[in-house]
Amino acid sequence: MSDTSTSGLPRILAVVAAAGFRRHSTYRQATIAGAFTNTMFGFMRCYIMLSVVDVTGQAGGYDRAQLATFVWVGQGLLAVVNFWTPPELAERVRSGDVVADLLRPVDLMAMVLATDLGRAGYALITRFVVPVVVGMLAFDLFLPADPLTYAAFAVSVLLAVLISATCLHLVALTAFWLMDVRGVTMVWALLSGAASGLYFPLTLLPDWLATLLWVGTPFPSLMQAPLDVLVGRGSAALMVAGQVAWLAVVVALARVVQRRALNRLVIQGG
Amino acid sequence: MTAVIKTSALRKDFTVWHKTGRLRRQRRVVSAVDGVDLTVTEGELLGYIGPNGAGKSTTLKMMTGILSPSGGQVSVCGLTPVPQRTTLALRIGVVFGQRSQLWWDLPLSESFSLLRHVYRVPAADHAARLRRCRELLDLDAFLATPVRQLSLGQRMRGELTAALLHGPKVLFLDEPTIGLDVLSKQAVRGFLAELDARGDTTVVLTTHDLADIEKLCRRLVVIDHGRVVHDGTVAQLHAAYRSRRRVVVDLDAPWPADLVLPGASVERVEADGLRVTIALEDTTAGELLGRLAGSVALRDLSVREPEIDDVIARLYAGR
Ligand SMILES: Nc1ncnc2c1ncn2[C@@H]1O[C@H](COP(=O)(O)OP(=O)(O)OP(=O)(O)O)[C@@H](O)[C@H]1O
Ligand SMILES: [Mg+2]
What we know:
By secondary structure, chain A is mainly α. Chain A is 73% helix and 0% strand.
């Protein structure tokens, strides 16, 4: 679809990502409110999880410190890996404003992903940092000793952001058929929350169900994978490889769906 | 003279569903564009007008590659718009009056510098074009304002600039003056006139403000129900519809109702018979005056050129 020659494309996308960063930085109050809410819920989730550990000695194979890290870093990642914000593109398809996106000399999906990387970058230095620092002050967190673990975590988070953004792009593309994507968005929010490890570690589920989720869906790649990489539960290499595979799958799917969507293009409104 | 835009038998059908019962729906096909043949040569400034729902925006969407035609051919800058949309995007500029291509949350100036990168414009070219737009469109006062806080007129000047920063060969403008005040309209018109005078940009302009057309366009294409009903100059349109000049006279004594004027007809009598509008059909203003001078007490008079609104109204009404 894209006729843009590849020379210069990474540079364009870097600039678009930087713009995504700045766009989100203009919403200070929303950022503060979001960080505050996620921190409050962090306390709640952490006390509940730890009370389970106090009774049983462990929970889902995590000890106290690992679990506290799982909760607090999860509360931070929740804003970085986009779970709930409905995709902007869907609304733009509904209103017809998508014409402006289509009149750019750059592929639509590339623009969308780059913009989301910028958003994630801004969330990382604001909404990620706040709950993690508060959690560190209020609880004993598990902190990996090996610097490589942090590097692997960073890669895993980047992959999670890209997988999530691509899946949300798929959700948005359904707008070309459905116009109203609220239903699809809701199903996505429900599944991605429950099946990703965002609400509870997937290790609490029966083995067969957890395995099914890991192998059959991209959801664990969004949250459980980066968190397990960080607390050192399971093989980091295997989990990152799984994320790469899922990224390839969802990107390939999104390319096909986008091509179909643009072929049946009907822009709403005069 | 090379053709920059060429369409032949271009058409677009929309399928719309009508509810006819609780569950029954009826399918209806709307031919929004119904066989348009158009050739626009380099440097032309084309007025593309027609009543609401005539198919203007639909034509522009097909020319810019955001809507697939149902039939016929269209080529712009030698490219086929839909399959080559992202390549074509580098060579055209587009303003859809009711939409924005600017980044809503960012200051106008940041949208501009972002566009420079997205379109890979050399810094010097970008700076030169931006400087010209800043002068002609008076942008300086709101360059630092986030786009969402701009007034309609300010945003529209920003949109025009955004559409031109990459030096497009063709500019598509769909109602760029909609909702603008007199000064903003003048700024936009002056800007387009200057662009036209340079002669290197082809412009397709859609508008309902016929003053735009009169001031800017030598060539006028009128469409109705998806078909071209006129393609020529404004003067040719007047000739085709026998537009008439008018003489308005002010009198010292009321108009004598029985006065006969060969080759002219009285259109309106106002102000207790002291002001009369006479349309010239088969005579000249001089002949009419000679006849009037002998019969009535003339105080003042003025000759009015035919108005484009009138002829367009007659064109739309006679369909
Ligand atoms: N997405 C769509 N689905 C169904 N019908 C459509 C769609 N878009 C346009 N139409 C129909 O096509 C016809 C032409 O519409 P278009 O927007 O091209 O008109 P226009 O000349 O731009 O009118 P206006 O002056 O009001 O902007 C109209 O009858 C309109 O109802
Ligand atoms: Mg229109």
